[in-house]
Amino acid sequence: MSATCPMTGGAVIADGISKEFGTARRPALHDVTLRAAPGRCTAVVGPAGSGKSVLLRCLAGLERPTRGTVRIAGTELTALDEAARTEFRRTRIGVVYRQANLLPQLDVADNLLLPLDTAGRRADPDLLQRALDLLDVRELLDRATPALTRAEELRVAVARTVLQRADLLLVDDPTAGLDAITGRHHLRLLRRRCAEFGLPLVLFSADPATAAHADRVIALQDGRVVQERDRPADCGCEPGSTEHIA
């Protein structure tokens, strides 16, 4: 089993996560450990069936691991009952799926504020203005949601997570539906903005190129970690650069 690291403020720690399904106890994850620090990007890469989606669901509180623990900003998610886990997930974890989960009947402005409105909270005015500018969302506010491009949907979904003051952002297949140039631009933007907002970012992708934009890479195969590597701290790379990345 992997050793447990001491908790640091705002960090995300999945420690020795295993997940089995069905009466046959079919393993989907086996002893997976992941660290995600505030403002840092972790990429979880692997082919279809490698366990990426199951790990995402465990980190998001949608699945309870068979063994192991998940701690997010000091809260042990795996120790919460279903109601408390649902509330934690709703208010403190941002998940951006391929479809971005925007409501088509609402415009962009209403989609941005919907989670806060549902929770009876108001957006912090300074944070709102900063998110609109840094994520290039301001010009989209009056747009109808179905008219957005895939890249615009992703920016809105990330801005919504920032406004929630979430403790973690999980992004599934961040370059799906984007051409190579737009995909690279989106990953650079995502990484830089999460660093500026101090938000732990975990990307899940079957595209190995995603690893070039991460501070840490975890490769999964058949539910097991088969490789881990860090971006060298002194590599001199601009965020999003592919230089010095194997």
Architecture overview:
With 246 residues, this protein is an alpha/beta fold. It has a single domain (12-230), classed as Rossmann fold (3-Layer(aba) Sandwich). Helix content is 29%, strand content 25%. It has 6 helices and 10 strands, in the order βββαββαβαααβαβββ. It has helices at 52-59, 82-92, 108-118, 125-134, 150-163, 180-197, and strands at 12-21, 26-36, 41-45, 67-72, 75-76, 93-96, 168-172, 201-205, 216-221, 224-230. The protein has a 6-stranded mixed sheet, sandwiched between helices. A 4-stranded antiparallel sheet has the order 2-1-4-5, with helices on one face. Strand 7, helix 6 and strand 8 form a beta-alpha-beta unit. Helix 3 runs parallel beside helix 5 and helix 5 (150-163) packs parallel to helix 6. The radius of gyration is 18 Å and the shape is globular. This is ABC transporter ATP-binding protein. Residues 12-244 form the ABC transporter domain.
What's the CATH C level? Alpha Beta
SSE pattern, N- to C-terminal: EEEHEEHEHHHEHEEE
| Number of E strands | 10
Q: Considering the protein shown, what is the CATH homologous superfamily?
A: P-loop containing nucleotide triphosphate hydrolases
Q: How does the helix and strand content classify structurally?
A: alpha/beta
What's the number of domains? 1
The CATH architecture assignment turns out to be 3-Layer(aba) Sandwich
How many helical stretches? 6
What distance separates the N and C termini? 28 Å
